[in-house]
Amino acid sequence: MYILLLLPVVVLASSASSAATADGSFITWDDLSIPTAAAVQAGGVGGGGVKAAARGGSHDLDTIVVSQDGTGHSRTVQGAVDMVPAGNRRRVKILVRPGVYREKVTVPITKPFVSLIGMGSGRTVITWNARASDIDHRSGHQVGTFYSASVAVEADYFCASHITFENSAPAAPPGAVGQQAVALRLSGDKTMLYRCRILGTQDTLFDNIGRHFLYNCEIQGSIDFIFGNARSLYQVRKYSTP
Length: 242
Known about the structure:
By secondary structure, the chain is mainly β. It contains four helices and 22 strands. Strand 3 and strand 4 (about 50) form a beta hairpin. Belongs to the pectinesterase family. This is Pectinesterase. One of its GO terms (molecular function) is pectinesterase activity.
């Protein structure tokens, strides 16, 4: 069925240094927590916007702020992910301020140890509306289920909390084909989601490969809305249909 427990996914500790997290032994509760005001200020974001030094040294930030009004380091979530250096070996938090972010996001395999943290799953939403039958204009072929995901995570040690992942494509009529519409695809190892909502209709959560732990989350869909070959533990507060 949909709920599998075959191997330990993560070991949560009450606190740890970035070095301890990056050695691959565990994910801490701090990795899932909203950064403190002091941490955000240290990253160069204040009431007047991003400091010039932060713009020039964004690749060294421990906290990257996304804000649609321009007072963060990036206006888009993908822009913040792009600021994380390839081969990253330390925990980087991306704080996404309230808003509806209409974009496709990919966390590539070269960028592990990223935490994507919203300001509440009802206030911070990442949404897109791709379906498997959509045409990729570069290749001329259908994107398929794999690439229909609004958010695709390919990196290890990814965390997310207090945020909504959504595919807003309309529900497919009976008998329709190519209507798979993934909200979130997990293809890395040792991922943890906490207090997240994953919303869609058909094929909402593509739990592709790896070991993942979803704790106190909500997953919504109507047809095959959790599927994949991962070995994951789900302790969710709600499964629902639209």
